[in-house]
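To whoever picks this up:

The nightly regression suite flagged Twin-arginine translocation pathway signal protein as changed. Nothing in the input moved, so I suspect the structure step. Input below, exactly as stored in the fixture:
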Amino acid sequence: MTSLTQTRLSRRELLKIGAGASLALTTVGLTATLSGCSSSRPSSDFDVLRDSDLPVLAALLPALVGNHPALTNQPQAITATLRQLDISLAHTSAAIQKDVHDLLGLLSLPLTRGPLTGIWGSWEQASPERLEAFLQRWRDSRLEMLRQGYKALSQLLLMAWYALPLSWETTGYPGPPQI
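Regenerated output under the current build:
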């Protein structure tokens, strides 16, 4: 009978792995940008979000919001949320827009999407369970970079969702006071 031994990483080895992963992700992102894999032009009818960003965000929104009646009963809810997110991003700095583009570019590019998220096919074909597993893995990751990516995605999408009046109805929020 053989016994399995656990491999324990020292702090130094873990830091080396983290630095190597960061370097690899930066290299892949830079290569994708320079090779034109990710268009820098906004999608039609959007000011900031690109065509490659929309499927990522549309797939992740229901996983983050959960089973909200407005999201499931109103077909335009996802599009309205993405438009609200675009409006919010249009009022941010160029540096923040670049960071969001970099994150969404990594998630859009098939070369990086699979290893980073566990979603090996297209975002549109990803099951709710896979999307939730990806978000949970990033939320609970030991790597600060992945935790920050989760925070950015969840805060951006939830901020855009709860800015819409259609999300208020089932929560009992009457909306902002009339002035």
